Amino acid sequence: MGVNGIALLAFAIDKLRARQNGLRIREATLLGLAFLGPFGALGGMLTFRHKTRKLIFLLVPASALLHAILISIFLPAIH
């Protein structure tokens, strides 16, 4: 499982724990995972409707866009 999968799983677990009033995953951890695996984090946010109202988590779509741009620039250079 890659970083995007771990980010998606972390958002799912945190949402489940939020509903059950359980021990939550720190926002700093979620943001770190979102920086490293933005596509999984964005998928988790949208799928589980989690952290979508928090202003700081607007960085997640921005990070995903930045990653997509960098991939489109550097991936063709590899081939």
Explain how this protein is built.
With 79 residues, the protein is mainly alpha-helical. The protein has one domain. The chain is 73% helix and 0% strand. Helix 1 runs antiparallel to helix 2, helix 1 packs parallel to helix 3 and helix 2 packs across helix 3.
Helix content: over 70%
Number of separate structural domains:
1
Total helices: the number is: 4
The global form is elongated
Residue fraction in strands = under 5%
Report the end-to-end length measured between terminal Cα atoms: 25 Å
Task: Calculate Rg over CA atoms.
Answer: 13 Å
Oligomeric state: single chain
Q: Provide the succession of SSEs.
A: HHHH
**Mean pLDDT across residues:** 93
Question: Which spans have pLDDT < 50 for at least 5 consecutive residues?
Answer: none
Number of strands: 0
Largest beta sheet, briefly? none
Secondary-structure-derived class: mainly alpha
Spell out the key features of this protein.
single chain; 79 residues; mainly alpha
What's the quick description here?
With 79 residues, the protein is an all-alpha fold.
List the helices and strands and how they pair.
Blueprint: H1 3-19, H2 27-36, H3 38-48, H4 59-78
Helix pairs in contact: 1-2, 1-3, 2-3, 3-4
